[in-house]
Fold each of these.
Amino acid sequence: MKIKATNRHIRHKSLFCVVLLILASLPNAFSQDRPESHSTRSRPTMSAEAKELLEDAIGVVCTQAKLDPKSSVAIDEMQARPSLPVHSPEARSGAERAQRLLPLAKTLVITALRQLSTEYGFKRSPRFKVRINQAILRVKSVRRVRPDMESRDNASVYLSRPHVITFGTIFLAGLRSDEGMISVLAHELMHIADGDNDSLRPLVSAVGKKASELTGLDVHGQRGDEITCDLIGAMAVRAYIVDTPGYESIARRLARSIQHNCVEIDEGDEDHLSPRNTIRALLALNPALVRELINDRF
């Protein structure tokens, strides 16, 4: 099971299909706003060498998951565990860590969101700048982490309560490092940043499109939303590591941001890539992360 996301996209599906049919009947009406239709536009690709390095980096992440005493528990292993009461020592410790790291995670997400917007060419758009500023206000408004026994191995946000991130107690206990916790907090904060109107959809679609082209995986729709949230999480963790140097290897600390996806039972669904393909897409989108994992593995 993946990190749980909101279901706010479902109610837009019928309307979206109608809009597509209308646009299809007007083939030239909006051609000036669709640069992606130009046949001369280059698509991102990965060389055979880059693909090999990516797979090596996945190996580093999942090897560290077995060697690191602070590694996150794999999602499929979390699923197999019995429910954990809210007041159990493991859940309480995880909840305290999440609440302590929440203010820092918000700052890291805001920085990562601005960086990603620049990388994907949205910085110069006045309209999108307004959307980013509104998204930042939503992130800043989050105040609390709420432990929940019924949520088990999930984290979620309910946009009717945008100031709270709900964490399953098994998930709280399974994220045993600050890096692992920041990555999941950042993921959920990105959902909140997007809001109930999908205000960051242009950025999310661009990220999903690039991930699809690089990997050959289907990373459109809700899958694009999820991979963008995961990417923001990985970027937040990398920035945290830069700001807090220590004696542990960079590769070990970076691996903690995504190693909960090192599963034995690797299954996805309509809205989520499989856990291992999530790692694959994230690393394809972030070649600098691949290099750091490979070069600093020891």
Amino acid sequence: MKNFGETIAYLRKQKGMTQNELAEKMHVTDKAVSKWERNLSCPDVNTISKLADILDVSVEELIQSKNNSQENIGSLINLILKAVALAMGIALIILNVLNQVDVKSSIIMLSIGLVCVAFYLFRNENQK
């Protein structure tokens, strides 16, 4: 799915408009439109309905694309939590095999891994 900025760019191009033309219709600068399309900023809440009208889509379609990028962030967070937990486990095993880790460090690494697993499970349980 497209994120918010990609959706704006796609719809603008479908209408055969340049960033400057969209900016003129929205009464903003072409730099503002460029920032929207690169997800560096978002249109003001009060102008989203006007943007939807100009692009011939519903406000819901624009907002839905914005929610998809938030879902991508959630997926990235889940991936990071799993990666950290796995990395802690692998590091702990390797350091133990090489006799390069003390008990205190082992407990800390194990705790970090378990906390990441717990956060991951908690996030996914709340999403159901």
